[in-house]
Design goal:
It is a single chain. With 279 residues, this protein is mostly helical. Helix content is 59%, strand content 5%. It has one domain. The protein has 9 helices and 6 strands, in the order E-E-H-H-H-H-H-E-E-H-H-E-E-H-H. The longest helix is centred in the N-terminal third of the chain and has 26 residues.
Length: 279
């Protein structure tokens, strides 16, 4: 039967404006800018000096990008065997959200220790912007025609060019747009978490822990849809196992913070009123 509707994929992930710009990289840059603006405004609205956030931003971004690439290279090392210089071709895709969070967190903690800033508070300020940056960055997978899901005949099936289809799926024209699913999921998730933040006095760092739990819960199911090559452990993709471990770690972190962290009263005085992500 002919398809009723589908989502076309861009034929090229490069924009030529005199110089060639890889859309994947452009979207990442936009995501970093948007996340930084939201985080700085939240931090300032809570009564803190925005220069505190600015002082940790550069190292946090650098560590996040390095971590994102390292995670991908380590978990999918077979993709680079015989041509290790491709490790540096980040514009072709291959940046992991796990590495972004872990690397960025390390950079943040290091700078907060050096500067004497509140690391848990800054993490909570950053979480909504991080989620929006993630939602933006996922569209780079659309332009690169990568990391899609199983074949589907649903009206929102994603058209993939024959040369980008995995072996065994040559005759399947449309696939689940997992980039779109994840993008929408994290936006809904962060809207829910910001609402919780406005209704419940969470301890410092607990918003970040909830985000880890919420994201990994959804990511576990998305991993079962994806058909790109991935290493398996006991029949499950590596990232599915990482989701389980990270969820449990987030749960333990949330409970530990409930006993050992404190409520920032000035923060909740600042965010009372109509719900909003940043103002």
């Amino acid at each position: 039967m002919p398809l009723i509707a589908s989502i076309p994929s861009p034929s090229d992930g490069v924009i030529d404006i005199g110089i060639s710009l890889h859309v994947y990289g452009v979207l990442l840059a936009i995501g970093v800018i948007v996340a930084s603006i939201i985080a700085e405004r939240r931090w300032k609205r809570w009564g803190h000096d925005p220069r505190e956030f600015q002082s940790v931003l550069v190292l946090m971004v650098i560590c996040g990008l390095i971590g994102a690439r390292l995670y991908h290279v380590i978990t999918d090392y077979q993709l680079f065997e015989g041509d290790w210089l491709r490790v540096f071709e980040v514009w072709e895709g291959g940046l992991s959200i796990w590495g972004v969070v872990l690397g960025g967190m390390i950079g943040l903690i290091v700078m907060c220790r050096i500067k004497g800033h509140d690391s848990l508070g800054l993490m909570d300020a950053i979480v909504p912007g991080l989620a929006i940056a993630q939602a933006i960055g996922r569209w780079g997978n659309w332009f690169n025609q990568e990391l899609f899901g199983e074949p589907t005949d649903l009206p929102w099936g994603l058209e993939i060019d024959p040369e980008n289809r995995p072996a065994g799926f040559d005759k399947k024209p449309t696939f689940h747009p997992t980039f779109l699913y994840e993008s929408l999921y994290v936006l809904v998730l962060i809207a829910m978490l910001v609402r919780i933040e406005r209704r419940v006095q969470l301890k410092r760092g607990q918003l970040s822990a909830l985000y880890v739990m919420g994201y990994t819960f959804g990511r576990f199911f998305l991993e079962h849809l994806r058909i790109d090559d991935a290493n398996l452990i006991l029949g499950f993709r590596v990232n599915a196992w990482v989701s389980v471990v990270a969820f449990l770690a987030g749960l333990g972190w949330f409970l530990w913070l409930g006993r050992n962290s404190t409520v920032d009263e000035s923060k909740y005085a600042a965010i009372s009123g109509p719900p909003r992500i940043a103002a």
